[in-house]
Amino acid sequence: MVLMKNLDLLTLTASDLQALLTKGDVTSKDLVKCMLHQITRYNHKLNAVISTPPKDIIFGQAEALDKERKNGSVRGPLHGIPILVKDNFNTDLCLGVDTTAGSYAFVGTQPTSNSRIVQKLVDAGALVLGKANLSELAYFKGVGIPWGWSALGGQTQSAYVSGGVRPDDGPGGHWNPAGSSSGSAVGVSAGFAPVSIGTDTAGSLINPAIRAALYAMRLTVGLAPMEGVLPVCPLYDTGGPMAKSVKDMADMVDIIVDRSSPHVSADGYAQFLCGDWSDLSVGTLDPAIWYFEKDIQMPYPEATEQISRETRAAYERIRGMAKKIAYNVPLVNGPPLAKCDSDGNILMANDFNHALKTYNKTLGSPLIHTVEELVKFNEEHAGKELPTGFDNQDILKDCVKTHLDPETYEALRHSTSRAVREDGVDKILREYNLDVIIGPADSDMETVYGISGYPVVTLPLGYLDLNGRPFGLAAITSAYGEATLLRVASAWEKTFSKRRPPKLE
After folding, report:
1. pTM assigned to the model
2. CA-atom Rg of the chain in angstroms
3. Helix (H, G, I), strand (E, B) or coil at 186
């Protein structure tokens, strides 16, 4: 038997833990105990987890899965593996954790069942060890609030950066863990669970994962079923996994995709982990123009220079191995992309009220029924929901007053989609004969993939000399190109330096 104190939760992957379970060196109950201890020890300073189940519930679930294993039945690679779930995924009361999206307005609303993605994970043998903190309402409350903050969970902190989030650093500055799937990323990096699940509307998976040195995949919109997830905008919302290895990420993708979709790989996604660049044609984005503006991230010249230098060095390293590389491809950027972002925000504001009403049908005891009621709830509970420094709900107020007629809605939807899809990503891939486009993850790439609905994968690269924060790239391709992205990620993982765990003490 492996002594629990010898388990390095900061580096062990789900695949590593599954191997130990298979050999009988540990039990799933052992893993639950060990990871609950890790949460107890460090969550008070990281605020990555909002809630964990009562021990009798989670221990009982682990024991049942251990019994299945003993009897010769193993459901798959996540059998008996603890996971974290972003707290906007509905979890049935039998799992022992609430679903709040970080808002007091959703405490005790009692989802009537698991979201479809959570149910898929549970059916695959995963143990829901906790609900992860997030930017409240998936950052659909107010502009300028620091990423990773929720009224219920507080400010999520990076496991890599000491000193905590700086209020003068911008909402997504270098000391911030990013969001909105903040706790899902920080929790995995801190060893609270080997894998997690999050949502993404425009960067909510990719940004926090890259700042935790994790592999994450945002799936093509519609490829994973989003029923039972507190929404932002069904037009753009999707889900995806975070993990320390590409294999774990692929295993998670296999589980959560909608198997009824004709776009899903029938033989699974692990087959695409080739670890080879030779058949891949890559386009790159210029780090000199792809970055976050100062309204999101205060610029530090030394950080900007390091990210640019190491990004260009990574491009050069790939050049010697890839089938083809095209530098600085002209993907839509600048004012045209800013226009898409603005119009996309209008579409989201228009859709949220209806989406919220649809979501409320999944709750047994909803406290609020409309965006107007949510705004009023926050005002009536301002001490909790709108404390000083976090007292902005202008996004919600915009939703109250945004009502597009069908013609205007369709015109905006068509123009924004076309700009980033047919005239954006698709055009670049076609004209340059490429498989994928890669560029700095901390950038307006989030607008491109958010509005296009296209899949993206993170490519961890380095750690800032400024403060130790991880940084890296993101890769995007056309709709349903998850297999291509897994080929890229597996080649990247084989090429670049091994992940460096954080120092939690």
Report:
1. 0.98
2. 21
3. helix
Residue (of 256, 222, 14, 302) closest to 115 by Cα position: 256
Closest CA to 396 of 232, 156, 235, 237: 232
How open is the CA angle 145-231-99, to the nearest 5 degrees? 85
* φ, ψ for residue 112, nearest 5 deg: -80, -10
Separation CA 194–CA 207 (nearest Å): 18
Residues contacting 20, CB < 8 A, separation 6+:
2, 26
- Per-residue pLDDT reduced to its tens digit, 241-264: 999 999 999 999 999 999 999 999
**Contact at 8 Å (CB) between 168 and 123?**
no
What angle in degrees, to the nearest 10, is found between the helix axes of 406-420 and 334-360?
130
Q: What is the DSSP letter of 93?
A: G
Q: Which residues contact 129 (CB under 8 A, 6 or more apart)?
A: 32, 35, 36, 39, 52, 53, 58, 82, 83, 84, 192, 193
Among 376, 370, 375, residue whose Cα is nearest residue 353 = 370
CA separation (Å) from 266 to 120, 258, 261, 262, 304? 17, 11, 10, 9, 42
Residue 229 per-residue DSSP state: B
How far is 148 from 135, CA to CA, in rounded Å?
4
In angstroms, what CA-CA distances link 450 with 236, 325, 344? 6, 25, 9
Q: Is the pLDDT of residue 151 over 90?
A: yes
* Residue 39 amino acid letter: I
What is the C-alpha to C-alpha distance for residues 476 and 436, in angstroms, rounded to an integer? 6
How far apart CA 438 and CA 18 sit, in angstroms, is 32
How far apart CA 128 and CA 57 sit, in angstroms, is 10
- Residue 174 backbone phi and psi in degrees, to 5: -65, -20
Query: How many whole angstroms separate alpha carbon 77 and alpha carbon 251?
Result: 7
pLDDT of amino acid 6: 80
